[in-house]
């Protein structure tokens, strides 16, 4: 079996650390070397696609994100930034089209109906394949839980002294998948415009292939999330007091009580909050979103040490997570309805996590991007 349920594996064998591809099509990565204190001078020589070509229409459900430069990583004023968000480093990206909102249940259902695709969470589990990715000698879990499913969130009934132990609020649910986001007894009837969840990286890639699109790189995602506010901590600026008006997150004491000040306890209908400067919705909160970059917690330090501006960076060549050497993770961005100021505060623009490519959870979805070249290629295919 190609796919392995990593989220399930992490849960049942209690691997303590848990975070809450192919390179994209296009030109190879370029960079411009910077002399000390000469960033602005050098950056003026960079040429990226900013304006949408007049002969290329905007694909349905997308917006044009004009190319430009940004300091990728934690803003200097961000006191909640984690080590793997630092140091900030300068990058430049060509303009591209991006989905206005996260891919919805309705959109994903059309893909499944057209292709017959079966998601990772719906596939049978093969222990012979699974054990190749865990320490030798790991015992096989009981057959009662070696069945298709995914992780769903459960509240705690009392305060938790250790918020690093994810097993206190995640529960393996046989039968949980994109059609049954809260477990086998739930469904998506009437929730066509909610973001689709329980989507693995492989599932997201399959959808992208069908649509003629791809996942954003981490640099593209962060650039788009900033909406023209380079250096800002949040997509709307610096005012954290208006968080409940701007994003679907967790208010109250995590994971015991959610006051629902923002209007939702779980996922929200897409476009429930104001868009950012580029017209993109839900770039903070609601559900985490896949990017195409490998998660490597040494990458930012290595990138900054090169002292150069990376143009359209595709991320590190290989994954690396010192706390879990067996896992191969991709970067996810944006935070979710479970993010709290007392837990991870991952509704910040620079926040990032690693997620195993073959696992999916109740708070993980995606959105797609497409380049000018890809739009032209798709148009040509339709003519043929």
Describe the structure.
- The protein is of the alpha+beta class and 384 residues long.
- The chain has one domain (23-105, 192-383): paralog of FGE (formylglycine-generating enzyme).
- The chain is built from nine helices and 13 strands.
- The chain has helices at 6-12, 39-43, 105-115, 127-130, 201-211, 218-226, 243-246, 299-305, 372-383, and strands spanning 30-33, 62-65, 68-72, 89-93, 96-99, 149-153, 170-174, 288-294, 308-311, 329-333, 352-356, 364-365, 369-370.
- The strands form four sheets. The protein has a four-stranded mixed beta sheet with strand order 1-9-4-3. It has a four-stranded mixed beta sheet with strand order 11-10-8-12.
- Mean pLDDT is 87; it is low at 1-28 and 34-42.
């Amino acid at each position: 079996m190609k796919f392995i349920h990593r989220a399930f594996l992490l849960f049942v064998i209690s691997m303590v650390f848990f975070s809450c591809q192919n390179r994209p099509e296009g030109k190879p990565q370029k960079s411009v070397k910077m002399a000390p204190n000469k960033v602005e001078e050098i950056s003026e020589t960079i040429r990226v696609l900013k304006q949408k070509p007049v002969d290329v229409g905007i694909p349905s459900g997308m917006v044009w994100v004009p190319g430009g430069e940004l300091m990728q990583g934690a803003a200097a004023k961000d006191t909640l930034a984690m080590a793997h968000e630092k140091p900030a480093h300068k990058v430049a990206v060509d303009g591209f089209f991006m989905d206005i909102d996260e891919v919805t249940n309705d959109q994903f259902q059309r893909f499944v109906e057209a292709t017959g695709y079966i998601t990772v969470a719906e596939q049978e589990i093969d222990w012979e394949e699974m054990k190749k990715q865990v320490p030798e000698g790991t015992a096989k879990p009981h057959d009662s839980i070696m069945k298709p499913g995914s992780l769903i969130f459960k509240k705690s009934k009392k305060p938790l002294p250790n918020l690093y132990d994810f097993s206190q609020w995640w529960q393996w649910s046989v039968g949980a998948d994109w059609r049954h986001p809260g477990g086998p007894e739930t469904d998506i009837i009437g929730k066509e415009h909610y973001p689709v969840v329980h989507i693995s990286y492989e599932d997201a890639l399959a959808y992208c292939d069908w649509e003629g699109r791809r996942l954003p790189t981490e640099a593209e995602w962060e650039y788009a999330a900033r909406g023209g506010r380079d250096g800002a901590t949040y997509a709307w600026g610096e005012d954290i007091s208006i968080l409940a008006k701007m994003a679907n997150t967790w208010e109250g004491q995590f994971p015991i009580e959610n006051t629902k000040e923002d209007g939702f306890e779980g996922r929200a209908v897409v476009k429930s909050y104001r868009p950012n400067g580029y017209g993109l919705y839900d770039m903070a909160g609601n559900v985490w979103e896949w990017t195409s970059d490998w998660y490597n917690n040494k990458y930012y330090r290595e990138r900054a040490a090169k002292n150069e501006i990376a143009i359209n960076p595709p991320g590190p060549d290989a994954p690396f997570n010192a706390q879990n050497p067996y896992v191969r993770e991709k970067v996810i961005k944006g935070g979710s309805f479970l993010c709290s100021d007392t837990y991870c505060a991952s509704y910040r623009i620079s926040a990032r996590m690693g997620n195993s490519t073959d696992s999916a959870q109740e708070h993980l979805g995606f959105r797609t991007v497409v380049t000018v070249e890809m739009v032209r290629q798709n148009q040509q295919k339709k003519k043929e």
